[in-house]
From TrEMBL:
The keyword Secreted does not apply. It comes from Nocardia panacis. One of its GO terms (molecular function) is transmembrane transporter activity. PANTHER family: EXPORT PROTEIN, MAJOR FACILITATOR SUPERFAMILY MULTIDRUG TRANSPORTER MFSC. This is DHA2 family efflux MFS transporter permease subunit. Residues 11-488 form the Major facilitator superfamily (MFS) profile domain.
Amino acid sequence: MNFDSTRRWLALGALAVAMLTIGLDVTVLVVALPTLATDLNASTSALQWFSSAYTLALAALMLPAGALGDRYGRKKGLVAALLVFGVASVGCALATSSGELIAGRAVLGIAAAAMMPLSMSVLPAMFPEPQQRQRALTIWITSTAVGIPLGPLVGGWLLGHFWWGSVFLINVPLVVIGVLAVLALVPESRSEQAFRLDLPGVALSAIGMLGVTYGFIGFGEKGWGDGTFWAIVIAGVLVLAAFIWWQRSAATPLIDLDLFRANGFRWGAVYLVLVNFAMFGMFFTVPQYFQAVLGVDSFGSGLRLLPMIGGLIVGSRVVDKAPPALGVRAVLVSGFALLAVGLGLGALTRIDYGYGYTALWIVIIGIGMGLVMPASMGLAMGELTAERSGTGSALLQALRQAGGTIGVAMLGTVLATRYRAELGPLDREPISDGINAGAAVARKLGDAAMLEHVRTAFLGGMGAMLWVCAATCLVAIPIVALTQRGAASGAAKIRSSNESESTHVG
């Protein structure tokens, strides 16, 4: 391996470490919420906004961030985003009020909105050879996915040894590594064509994504009968429709709608939305099951997610080492089938089942994720030229984020509805608020029968939700089989779409 090749892989490793911070930030806060409620005297509404502020900023600004990288330089944009993320992490750790922490979380979301697409968009310049690019994409997406189940583990350990601000300060050394490595190892790249930033497109995309995301967050909190959030979602959809109309007539559009004419990009994006819809719902539920039903603490919950990480790594290695003759179709069908099996087994969980059963089905889910996510991303990225890799990557990440947000809202409502239905005479506040509140009431009263009833009701809700997730993955199987019929293998497809690609490296 020559020096240039070594430098590329070292840079990718540093990017992967930095991207862990985004996955960690999605879930690490969950275990800190009870402590924050006490130390910052935070209301229930404030606790919800600690998470929502991050999600909303991330969704609203991802598309503009990708375009800025294409215009002014992806390396510069990535370094700036990493620095902002590090500073915002320190600000969150030092917050003394709920308002300060919400503001810090919003800034973290802004930085993450740039980090995700820009870190991906530098890969074409670093790995122009198609097979190496697929391997790099697999490593990149695995690093972001691994951070999600690691969040409760890291957060639980930090809260057991330090104060709550440590869950944010853990980002700082990772950011420092990322900045130094990007400055030293990552080549600068930008679009060869000078273009003006589409400011009307920026405004329309940000407002539309903000409206849709905020509306679905509201459904997750208030249920599907809230007219205000329906109005917000409809308004967001209308603004996004106006954004698409504007992109068709703009001289320098924010996104290239012609990308969706390419089979690989169009269907790769669809597969990513489907898998994120199912997986975010699962991540929302399983830690609650560990803590409220199995009775473990936040650190123990994180430990019990480790088999999923192992499965994810195994699946991603299969994608990396799969022979070209196998083809992306076979990989995706196998991955979605494993996801459906694992989620179906999870839906059959009963109150007397031990952790061994859970470890089995989350390993299967991890392997399925490791197959589907890198293969889908490679399929879509294989259609991107280096000219528009920033905006194309941002579009993919925005769609993934939308799928996950909608998944949490819809699946959370399925879980809550079934949980309340199975509570029967116990369907009253605060028990009806959720499994944690219900279990707390039962323990306070010392009522073992009530505790078992509440736990059984939660498992009924979790089962209903996981059946929806499994059905989503089952639906994906014939979609893959039909849309990838006769398609080239993943590596060959990426190669054919990039043979004429030219990259400007500065």
